[in-house]
Amino acid sequence: MRVLGVDPGLTRCGLGVVDGSGGRRVRAVAVDVVRTPPDAPLPERLLAVGVEVERWIERHRPDVVAVERVFSQHNVRTVMGTAQVSGVVAMLAAKAGLAVAFHTPSEVKAAVTGEGRAGKEQVTAMVTRLLALEEAPRPADAADALALAICHCWRAPMLDRMAQAQARSAELARAHKARLAAAQRARLAAAGEAS
């Protein structure tokens, strides 16, 4: 499975591609950060990020795009920019026919470090180690993008099994309700014939 991880941001948007070959084995393919000037108009900044994400999708041909789920921050302006970039990325992935998976920062940190409250340095150190990189990806947005991709490689099989189990459970529940309804109709019909 090839995953494009995106750590959304207007000033710095981390992009990382990881190949997962089953189990815990992962390999880095590419990593970079898209930068936009804070004083540029918002539409131009979103366009710049979008053009680069689209280029990465075309170049690296991921199977899925993993994006950090926007969470509440104290700085509303920052969270708005992050949400807008996430929307652009999700739209471009859908345009390319790719699935999009959203992971919370704590899910990513827990997957990569074993601790949902790990700091950026700890995440960077573990990403460097897990991917056997010669040097740590910088800035932290680059490491976060790789961490998102790793997280998805490791969580996707479990999420797929859970979805299959939920679908099977719903199917069994429908079949059970149908049998109960048929039995109820048969009892009512039998009671009607007896009277």
TrEMBL record:
- List the InterPro entries hit by this protein, alphabetically: RNaseH-like_sf, RNaseH_sf, X-over_junc_endoDNase_Mg_BS, X-over_junc_endoDNase_RuvC
**Example of a GO biological process term:** DNA recombination
State its role: The RuvA-RuvB-RuvC complex processes Holliday junction (HJ) DNA during genetic recombination and DNA repair. Endonuclease that resolves HJ intermediates. Cleaves cruciform DNA by making single-stranded nicks across the HJ at symmetrical positions within the homologous arms, yielding a 5'-phosphate and a 3'-hydroxyl group; requires a central core of homology in the junction. The consensus cleavage sequence is 5'-(A/T)TT(C/G)-3'. Cleavage occurs on the 3'-side of the TT dinucleotide at the point of strand exchange.
Alphabetical UniProt keywords: Cytoplasm, DNA damage, DNA recombination, DNA repair, DNA-binding, Endonuclease, Hydrolase, Magnesium, Metal-binding, Nuclease
The taxonomy runs: Bacteria, Bacillati, Actinomycetota, Actinomycetes, Pseudonocardiales
Q: Where in the cell is it found?
A: Cytoplasm
What is said about its interaction partners and assembly? Homodimer which binds Holliday junction (HJ) DNA. The HJ becomes 2-fold symmetrical on binding to RuvC with unstacked arms; it has a different conformation from HJ DNA in complex with RuvA. In the full resolvosome a probable DNA-RuvA(4)-RuvB(12)-RuvC(2) complex forms which resolves the HJ.
Q: What is this protein called?
A: Crossover junction endodeoxyribonuclease RuvC
Q: Give the Pfam families listed for this entry.
A: RuvC (PF02075)
Gene Ontology CC terms, in alphabetical order = cytoplasm; Holliday junction resolvase complex
Q: Cofactor(s) for this protein?
A: Mg(2+)
Matching entries from NCBIfam families are given as: ruvC
Originating gene:
ruvC
What is annotated as the active site? D7, E68, D141
Per UniProt, the enzyme's principal EC class comes to hydrolase
Provide a Gene Ontology MF annotation, just one: crossover junction DNA endonuclease activity
Q: What is its EC number?
A: 3.1.21.10
Q: What's the family?
A: Belongs to the RuvC family.
Show the catalytic activity.
Answer: Endonucleolytic cleavage at a junction such as a reciprocal single-stranded crossover between two homologous DNA duplexes (Holliday junction)
Where mainly located? cytoplasm
Which top-rank group of organisms is this from? Bacteria
Query: What residue ranges carry the coiled-coil annotation?
Result: none
Write out the residues that bind Mg(2+) 2.
E68
Positions of Mg(2+) 1 binding: D7, D141
